[in-house]
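Annual report, structural modelling task.

Input specification for the magnesium ion complex:
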Amino acid sequence: MSVPNNAPEVAGLAPELAGAKEGQGSKPLASASERFTSYDVEAFEVPGGREENWRFTPMRRLRGLHDGSAAFDGKITYAVTPVDGVTVETVSRDDSRIGEGGVPADRVAAAAWSAFTEATVVTLDGTPAPVTVSVTGPGAGATAVGHLQLRTTPFAEATVVVEQRGSGALADNLEVVLADSSRLTVVVTEEWADDAVHVGAQHFAVGRDAVLRATSVSLGGDLVRITPTVKYRGPGGDAELAGLGFADAGQHLEQRLLVDHAVPHCTSNVIYKNALQGVDGMPDARTVWIGDVLIRAAAEGTSTFELNRNLVLTQHARADSVPNLEIETGEIAGAGHASATGRFDDEQLFYLQSRGIPEDVARRLVVRGFFGEILTRVTVPELRERLEAAIEAELAVTGS
Amino acid sequence: MSTLEITGLHVSVAAEGGAKEILKGVDLTVRSGETHAIMGPNGSGKSTLAYAIAGHPKYEITAGSVTLDGQDILAMTVDERARAGLFLAMQYPVEVPGVSMANFLRSAATAVRGEAPKLRTWVKEVKGAMNDLDIDPDFAERSVNEGFSGGEKKRHEVLQLSLLQPKFAVLDETDSGLDVDALRVVSEGVNRYRAGGDVGVLLITHYTRILQHIRPDVVHVFAGGKVVSTGGAELADELERNGYARFTSAGAETPAGV
Ligand SMILES: Nc1ncnc2c1ncn2[C@@H]1O[C@H](COP(=O)(O)OP(=O)(O)O)[C@@H](O)[C@H]1O
Ligand SMILES: [Mg+2]
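The model returned the following structure:
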C-alpha cells in the first residue's frame, strides 16, 4: 500500500517507532488516539499478523478476508421480525445515513465496507417491542460481506437482538447510531456453526444524553473477531458494553474494544467475561480481549471503568487480556480498569463435591455464577434462557 | 445407629522424589452418638486423615479401608461420600469466586437430600442457621468464602454442617484462628448438631481449648501418621499439662518439623 510521504507523523509512539507515518499499517500504532481509519480497503496494507492489532489473530484461518483473496460472492441474509415502530429498509451504499456510526479501522472492516452493495437499516422509533434481527452466514466454503445499521430516533427506547448463525466466512460492519436522549439495549450473539469465520466491526455512535446497553455473546464459530468502537456525539452519553464468550477446543474468540471519549461528561462501563474449555489432544481454546479506553483532552468529566475476567476451566486453553487506559486530561470523574484470569481448579471442585454436589453440577454452578452478571443484562427472557442452555450444552461437550 | 470404621489406613502424597507416606496405619472406629477428639502436633498427619476420608485427589490410599456402615467409602467419588453422610469441615475452606453462598448451600442441600428443598421453608431454615452462628444475612449473596476472614470461614463450615446434617462430621481444626467469642459460637453450633441427631464427630485439634466447649467421649493422640494413644477426656487434660513430648518421643517416628 502507499502511505503518502507527507502523511502526518504519529505522536505518542514508542521510541523505536518514532517517525512512523499515520496509516503505516505495518508499524503498530502505539496510541489508540492515532488509530488509522478509512472506508477504502486499499488504504490499508495487507496485514501479515505481526501488526499490533493483528498479532493475536490466526491469520491463516481468516479465509482470505484480510488479503483480497476472498471472493465475497456469497450472501448474508438479514431477517427482521416486523414490530410496530420499527422500520426496516434495504438501502444502497450511497444512502446518506450510511457511515454515521463510524469508519473502519482495519483492513477487513474496510474490505467489507468497500464491497457491500446494499445495507439493511433498522430504525427504532418510540418504544417498540423487542426486535430480532436474524443474520445468516453465506454457507460453508462461501465468503460474504454484510452491512447492518441500527438507529434510534430521539427519545426512543428500544431493544434489539442480533442473532447470528450459519456457516461460511463473513466480514461485516454493524453501525449502531443512537439519537439524542434515546435508549438502546442491543444484544449481539455469535452462534455460528463450527466452520464459521466472522470478522466484524461494530461502530457505536452515542448521541447526547443517549444510553447504550450492549451485550455481546460469543459461543460459536471457528474464529470470531469483533472490534467494537464507541464514540460519543454529544455530552451526557452513557455506554455499557458487556460481553461473554465460551471458547471450546480449537476456537478463537477475539474482542478488541475501543471506547473513545472525545466529548465531556460521558460515561463508559465495559465488562467482559470469557470461559475457556480445551480438550487434550486438540488445539487450544483461545480468547483475546483488548480493551482500549481513550480519554482525550476535551473529555472532561469522563467516568469510565473496564473489566475483563477469564475463567480457565481446563488445560489446553489460553486467555490473553490487555486493558489499556490512555488519559489526556486531568479533569476526569473517574477511571479504572481491572483484568484477571483465573483457573477453576481442583481445590474448588473438591470443595463443592465434598458438599455432595456432583462434578457436572459443580462445573455448571461455577460457570453460571461466573457469567451471571452478564446474562442478567440480557433482558429478553426467552433469549436469556436459550443462551443459558447453550452455555450448559457447551459445558457438556467434553463430558468433563 | 451408624459406624465409621477406619482400618490399617496408609496414605501417601506425591512429593518431590516420589511418593511420601504420611499415614502409617490408622485404626479408628467412631459410632453415632460419640465424639472422638484427635489431637496431635503439627505435621503429624491429622489433615491428611481428614482429606483421605473425604476423598481429596492428592492423597493416595496405599493400604487399609474406610467403611460407613460396612459400605466401602474409598470406592466412592468425593460427592458420593458426602451424599452417603460424611462431612469435612476444612482447616482451610476454599474460595469459589462467582458462586454465591446462597446458591452453593441450596445446591449442596439439594444434592445431599436428594431433592430441592421447598423454597419457603429453605429460606427460613438458612436464615435461622445463619442467625444461630451470628452470621450476617448479607453473606448469602457473597461468593463462597471469598474474602471471608478466617473466623468467618469457620462459621460457614459449621453453617454447612448444620444444614447438611451428615451422619459423621470430621472437623479439622475448626477451632484454630477463632477468638474466644467465635470459639463459643462455633462450639455451640457443633453441639447443636450433635444434639440434633444420632451423629458422630471426629474433632481434630491441636489445642485442648475447644474440648472445654465440646466434651469428647474418646481422645486419641496422633503422632507420626498414626494413633499412638487412646483414652478418655482425662487424656486431653494430660496433654494440656505436658504437651506432646511423651508421645512424639515414644512414637515410632518423630514427625518432621516438630
Ligand atoms: N500435598 C502434600 N505434599 C507434600 N507433603 C504433604 C502434603 N500434604 C501434607 N504433607 C506433609 O504431610 C505431613 C502431614 O501433614 P498434615 O496432614 O497437614 O498434618 P497436620 O494436619 O497434622 O498438621 C506434613 O509433613 C506435611 O508437610
Ligand atoms: Mg492440619
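Residues 359-375 of chain A form the longest helix (17 residues).
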